[in-house]
Amino acid sequence: AYNQTVEGDYDKKMRRTQNRPVARGTINKQVGGMISGALALSSFAVYTQLANPGAMLVANSIWIGYCLIYTPLKRYSVHNTLVGAIIGALPPFIGTWAQLGTLFTPETMLLSLYIFSWQYPHFYGILYENRYDYKKAGYEMISNYDVDGVKATRHIKYSAVLALTTPLG
């Protein structure tokens, strides 16, 4: 909800995101902000009642990382995919800390590594199909600087290596 609220003007420029509520004008940014805030507060309230403070800390750090680092970084650096992959790989730590009271277990590390390695092929598929829209919207993506497919090819190979060498892959 937060991402769609702050990126409504960018979402309008992309076929993939132009029908999101703020981009389409179904709701305005103020209403989107209220929905986002209500969801964040509700999540906080649930975590304070049902989970330990560590799990709540991990969950909130993911929200902060996604909203305040990854989302704005998409307009300034091609490294946004790396940041997004790291943030996207953190949710297993919430469950581990909530259930076991510890942050690191071998299973959690393997699952997070698997999710991290999956982020690249997943996103590059989306990026390839929507590369012109991302550029039109002003996002800094690797495809913006791709010369004859060299950089994109290198990243796709890197993604394949990650996916094939991950213990769960």
Give an overview in words.
This protein is mainly alpha-helical and 169 residues long. It is 73% helix and 0% strand. The chain is built from nine helices and no strands. Helix 6 (80-88) runs antiparallel to helix 8 (106-137). The longest helix has 32 residues, at 106-137. The protein is flat. The two termini are 31 Å apart. The model has no long low-confidence stretch (mean pLDDT 84).
**Which spans have pLDDT < 50 for at least 5 consecutive residues?**
none
Tell me the series of helices and strands, N- to C-terminal.
Answer: HHHHHHHHH
Characterize the main sheet. none
Overall 3D form: flat
Strand content is under 5%
Mean pLDDT: 84
Per DSSP, the total helix count is: 9
Oligomer: single chain
Q: Residue share in helices?
A: over 70%
The first-to-last residue Cα distance is 31 Å
Summed up:
The chain is mainly α and 169 residues long.
Blueprint (SSEs and pairs):
Blueprint: H1 2-6, H2 8-11, H3 21-24, H4 29-50, H5 53-73, H6 80-88, H7 91-100, H8 106-137, H9 150-165
Task: Identify the notable features of this structure and list them briefly.
mainly alpha, single chain, 9 helices, 169 residues
